[in-house]
Amino acid sequence: MAVRRRSILPGFGLTMGYTMVYLSALVIIPLAALFWKSAMLPWPRVESLLHDPELMGTLKLTFGLSLLAAVLNACFGFVTAWTLVRYRFPGSRLVDGIIDLPFALPTAVSGITLATLYSENGWLGGPWHGFARTVNPAWHAAAAAVNGVLSAVHVSQALAWAGLPDGIASDLPEQIAYTRLGMLIAFIFIGVPFVVRTLQPALEDLDREVEEAAASLGASRRQTFVRIIFPALLPALLTGFSLAFARAVGEYGSVIFISSNIPGKTEITAHMIMKKLEADNYPAATFLGVVMLLASFMMLGAINGLQWWASRRGRGAA
Fold it and tell me: Is the pTM of this model over 0.90?
């Protein structure tokens, strides 16, 4: 006679019912209300919104800067997580604690702090102002050459479509705050903890004996990293990348204060939604929310598909 194993939690019916009620109250019902409210918008108004240059500009800027910030976070977050896990140095615990600072700070406080630091007279913006004025003549000549190459290989058009500058600017901006560069820094600031905290457990679980075995078989450090370490960490890296990207797409508080909010230049979609709400145009605001939601789902679906492929490929190699 088989012994029935008792579970610590209550039965399936009760736990499943609680889960569905919880998800319905926090996720399903609000999303359904968002779609229902946006459906109240007449089709001619929907068509005019879809062809609105301001909306297209905010979408390109929001997703373009969010994607670029997530890529940079994936690169530098990987280095940061590797350093914190593999090396011990004075102040390592302090650095590890600072990583969580964007989680603890209210987004409005983060935005005001970044705007103050990177303004023309700020601690970081002031030195940048002097540096940009000094190197701009040489930068102008180098940028012209690079832009010629980008245009020849049709890369500049793709960058412009993504909401990013179509090539390298002919002059470095003399001020970071209230420009796209400042917005990019804000996106990076709020997203880096997701990459670091996702990679740290994967790095800690990585068996160093595998690396030693590869070295004993004659593999170089580069071969060990490319063929053993990186494939094992790729699923975690993609997870952190997608979390940082999703966080940046939905960010408002920390970006709104460091952006000049100029339509077509430095305005994100969240600010446009707030303008619709302030004008009591709730159907248009909810429709913009639906557009953002669908676009985010599409990009996150593509990232999750890539993550699934990387995990399956890693298991097949193992």
Answer: no
